[in-house]
Specification:
There is one protein chain. The chain has about 450 residues and is an alpha/beta fold. It folds into two domains: about 200 residues, Rossmann fold; about 200 residues, 3-Layer(aba) Sandwich (Rossmann fold). The chain has 17 helices and 14 strands. The strands form three sheets. It has a six-stranded parallel sheet, with helices on both faces. Strands 11-10-9-12-13-14 form a six-stranded parallel sheet. A two-stranded parallel ribbon has the order 7-8. Bound molecules: uridine-5'-diphosphate-glucuronic acid. The site of uridine-5'-diphosphate-glucuronic acid has 21 residues, from helix 8. Uridine-5'-diphosphate-glucuronic acid binds next to helix 8.
């Protein structure tokens, strides 16, 4: 049995979080899927049915679709158009040296597609840009590159649209299976209708709103969504600083009250060490850069970034004042991933905090249930990596909880008392039962709490 309606098969350029998750999902729906990924090691792992990323549910499903022969990974695009009708571009768009998004991978993918198209004999395929790109990129950069390298015309010999991705790391597969909306941006109705029809074979169209618009609007929707989420987080972190300074202040309660207003909503109001990851900070910078190019004053976005940075530095300064200096003091950092459920440490609060602690002379020991290897690649040998929480806390002068992994919420105050040299915990993610720890003799500092 094969899914996908009119589509014989799907190609995906770039097997990162978005590409691989999409590929596994499509293959699980019996859509023949080919991932093209230039990293040979990654291709090798995928072809053995092994997931290159830590993501709930992905390893099992990946193994199954590879074993069933529905999903395949290759390093070259080759003559893929003989087998597929839709190609998704899901390559990365990291921040470039001047703050603008680096579009080189999108450009390279467009060239590969153009070359493959030039050599193909089959009908007009649909090319879908899923990478996060600034407004104007799909029509102003991707389209001309494909047209030039293939000598074919967009809207006639091939079709093009933007279809931003809204999945979250840690629940990537779940989000891909149950998107809360589908946004399609194009200038040609055939492209929009074809992608819509394809998705209707995969999702229940009655349950998922679909918005069809121009490419520019679709591109902007993605950047604006991530910027707005970051804004909510920085806003509640600003309120958390106020809560710490006013008697009885508790940002958890304030956020609850705010969230009860249906115009605000309860999500993304968790105060703490701020946002990290490969998306929110990068997309904020991209939007800021784009707005500046248009002469639009985007200082609101500067404030969002400044508050985010301040949350991390405040914790380091607090550690310093609690210990009367950090030189030679042993600090345990619990949690390295930018959020639970992932092994991704890109722009993680913990990494920034650790660098700052080291710069101030602290001896740093770290733990994370999934991200130790990735952290080691970033931080190198200057810190001690612990496989067990107990080893991380043993003899420590202070501990900082920087990722809200469920195992840290289960910490027992008496264990902390017996292991730590100085039982002080900075709860950067507000997950501990503060009262219980204090009653047991542990000194705690919780973000957003008057104490
Ligand atoms: C984010 C968006 O949520 C996705 O919709 C989007 O598709 C994705 O970026 C992307 O552009 O690819 P993600 O980076 O996986 O997803 O992570 P989030 O769940 O958004 O969390 C981002 C950061 O904000 C984390 O560091 C998290 O700890 C922090 N956060 C989140 C808070 O500090 N408080 C909150 O209330 C929520």
């Amino acid at each position: 049995m094969s899914g996908g309606g009119w589509v014989r098969g799907v190609g995906i350029i770039g097997a990162g979080y978005v590409g691989l998750t999409l590929g596994v999902f499509l293959a699980s729906k019996y859509v023949r899927t080919i991932c093209v990924e230039k990293d040979e090691e990654k291709v090798g792992r995928i072809m053995k049915g092994l997931s290159p990323i830590h993501e709930q549910g992905l390893p099992e499903l990946l193994r199954q679709v590879v074993e069933d022969g529905v999903l395949e990974a290759r390093t070259e695009i080759g003559d893929m158009f003989e087998e597929v009708d839709v190609i998704f571009i899901t390559v990365g768009t990291p921040t470039g040296s001047d703050g603008s998004p680096d579009l080189s991978q999108v450009e390279e993918a467009s060239r590969q597609i153009g070359n493959a198209l030039a050599a193909s004999k089959t009908g007009a395929p649909l090319i879908v840009v899923k990478s996060t790109v600034p407004p104007g990129t799909t029509w102003g950069i991707v389209r001309p590159i494909i047209e030039k390298t293939s000598d074919r015309v967009c809207g006639k010999d091939f079709h093009l649209c933007v279809n931003p991705e809204f999945l979250r790391e840690g629940s990537a597969l779940q989000d891909t299976m149950n998107p809360d909306r589908i946004v399609i941006g194009t200038k040609h109705s055939w492209a929009a209708e074809s992608l819509k029809k394809f998705y209707e074979t995969l999702y229940n169209p009655k349950k998922i709103p679909m918005l069809i618009t121009s490419p520019t609007n679709a591109e902007l929707i993605k950047l604006a969504t991530n910027a707005y989420l970051a804004l909510k987080i920085s806003f509640i972190n600003l309120i958390s600083q106020i809560c710490e300074a006013v008697e009885d202040g508790d940002v958890g309660v304030v956020a609850e009250g705010l969230g009860l207003d249906p115009r605000i909503g309860p999500l993304f109001l968790r105060a703490g060490l701020g946002f990290g990851g490969s998306c929110l900070p990068k997309d904020l910078r991209a939007l800021k850069w784009f707005a500046a190019g248009l002469g639009v004053d985007a200082s609101l976005l500067d404030s969002v970034l400044a508050i985010n940075g301040a949350q991390r530095i405040r914790v380091v300064k607090k550690s310093e004042s609690l210990l009367g200096g950090l030189r030679g003091r042993k600090v345990a950092v619990l949690g390295l991933a930018f959020k639970p459920g992932t092994d991704d440490v890109r722009e993680a609060a913990a990494i920034e905090i650790i660098r700052e602690l080291l710069a101030r002379g602290a001896e740093v020991r770290v733990h994370d249930p999934a991200a130790l290897d990735n952290a080691m690649r970033v931080l190198g040998g200057g810190v001690t990596y612990c496989q067990r929480i107990q080893d991380c806390l043993d003899g420590a002068d202070l501990a900082i909880i920087s990722t809200e992994w469920p195992e840290y919420a289960l910490l027992d105050p008496s264990t902390v008392m017996s292991l730590m040299h100085n039982p002080i915990i900075i709860d950067g993610r507000r997950i501990l039962d503060n009262k219980r720890f204090r009653e047991a003799g542990v000194k705690t500092y919780t973000i957003g709490l008057y104490q």
